[in-house]
Amino acid sequence: MSRRFPTSLLLFIGSFFFFWLFTSFGPITDPVESNYALPAKEMLESGNWLYPTIYGEPWFDKPILVYWLTALSFKLFGIHDGAARFMPALSSALGISLAYSFGSRVAGRMPGLLAAAILATGLQYFFMSKAVVTDSFLLVSSSAGLAYFYLGYMRYKGSTRWYIWMYPCLAIAVLAKGPIGLLLPGLIIALFLLIENKWSELLKMHLLLGTFLFALVSLPWFIAMYLRYGQDFVEVFLGVHNLLRATVPEHPENNVFYFYPVLFILSLLPWTGLAIRSICCGFMDAWKRKQPFQRFLLLWIGSYFVFYMLAATKYPTYLFPTVFPTAILTGFYLFKVPIKWPWLEYFLPIWIWIIGLGTASAIYLTGPAKWTVPIIFLLVGAFHSYYIRKKSTVRLFSSLFVLAVLLELLAAGLVLPEAVSARSEKHLPKILRPYEQDHLGFFDKYSTSYVYYGGPIVPRVLVPERMMQPTDGAISWGRKYIMPEESLEQFAQTREPGKRNILLVPHRGTPRKLFEKEAPNLNYKVLGKTEDWEIIEILPRP
Questions:
Q1: What burial letters (b/e) apply to 270-282, b meaning 16+ CB within 10 Å?
Q2: What is the pLDDT along the chain (542 residues), one digit of tens a residue?
Q3: How many CB atoms sit inside 10 A of residue 291's CB?
Q4: What's the pTM?
């Protein structure tokens, strides 16, 4: 047994509890998490573990892995919030163990341990470990695939057998998020071999065996889906959720040049300054000293960055896989490079992080905690800044790590539950129970979490110009939305014996503006209000 195993195991267990702690405090949110939790719930309830559904209809949004793992967690622990977040925490803990294992093999045990600590306490990684999305599974599987590639390339322990493990890892990445799980790692490997002028390495990568393993793991589910749904699956899964995302912006407001640079800086807090310093040092060593390790990590980071900068759709989680190689690089250079600009390397990122956590606390908390928690953040930050003033790297790292653990646990236990509650309709089924036998609908905005938490499947009611479902089979964003839809006119004119037409209208945003525009043409009365919705009854026109 390797001497690394006990350390890897301890890191896995410790980081799992670090990530999973307080996960039951926060409900499943709209619009993203509920799109993964509800299909998993339907999978468990129906016994159909092969063909994912949502609202009882085929669902082609993502491959099967996230639904399988979430449904398995529900089966083991019951359907509740903590169970839904169990697998992301478990996957993220595996990522920490992987960071140590890979980092220690290629850079030494101490850099590997530092990389694991930096990764675990980085802002985005910590909070993504609690999110019911695909990205933690993609990060771990694709990172494992690239790590095994490099171990094979460097002939770790004199063997190329490491290459073999690369293929099933990348297959799992494809099952986690689709073709991108193979495309970007494959691009990184190809660019690396090109720069190193080592195309002959392809002959040593066990391509035949590897391709067989990749196909054995990844293809059966895709084949089963194609045999069941045919061209419709191809057009929606590949056409809408992959090709269309790359060519047509789904969220045009994010399509700005500074979106990913700003996100990259924020995602690494409080280690941003050290990470940027390490990337700069890595560039120097990669091309001046021709160090393959640094070249590989920088290509890893840069390929994701450039690819998604060029893609039309910008999304906060797309760059998430870059935090793994960045943590490895930061751990490698942490004690190798002396402190030169402490305000840029340490103090500024730390205070951006602390002020951000304090601001979030002030926004989402209520009562005495609304002002006491931000004050605690500021006082702890001030003490930390005083403690590290002597520029000791050892003192800085140890104190910052402890600070990150304590403040992130405080944020996860107090702030995060309140923040996510504002994006969930967990309590709405209870509020709407008196109306469940009526003709009920959501105006323009749809809450999948309402269905997940026990509400009936109801239509999304839209004005004609907002009807999303295409009628010609074309590849368009309309094919992403498969909840039942009704036009406002159709909804208002429906008259079922003994049933009222009950419409939930948001208080704010575009849906509210659309409703106010249509209100003069409707006969309605207000029955009640929630924090986010107005409950109205659509009456017959006089």
A1: bbbbbbbbbbebb
A2: 567 788 899 999 999 999 998 888 889 999 899 999 999 999 999 999 999 999 999 999 999 999 999 999 999 999 999 999 999 999 999 999 999 999 999 999 999 999 999 999 999 999 999 999 999 999 999 999 999 999 999 998 888 999 999 999 999 999 999 999 999 999 999 999 999 999 999 999 999 999 999 999 999 999 999 999 999 999 888 888 788 777 777 777 777 878 899 999 999 999 999 999 999 999 888 877 778 999 999 999 999 999 999 888 888 899 999 999 999 999 999 888 877 777 788 888 888 999 998 898 888 888 888 888 888 888 888 888 877 776 677 888 888 898 899 889 989 988 888 888 888 999 999 999 999 899 999 999 999 999 999 999 999 999 887 776 554 455 666 677 888 899 999 998 888 888 999 999 999 988 999 999 999 989 999 999 998 999 999 998 77
A3: 15
A4: 0.93
Residue 442's nearest CA partner among 523, 530, 521 is 530
Determine contact, residues 97/113, Cβ cutoff 8 Å: no
**Rg of the chain on CA atoms, in Å:** 25
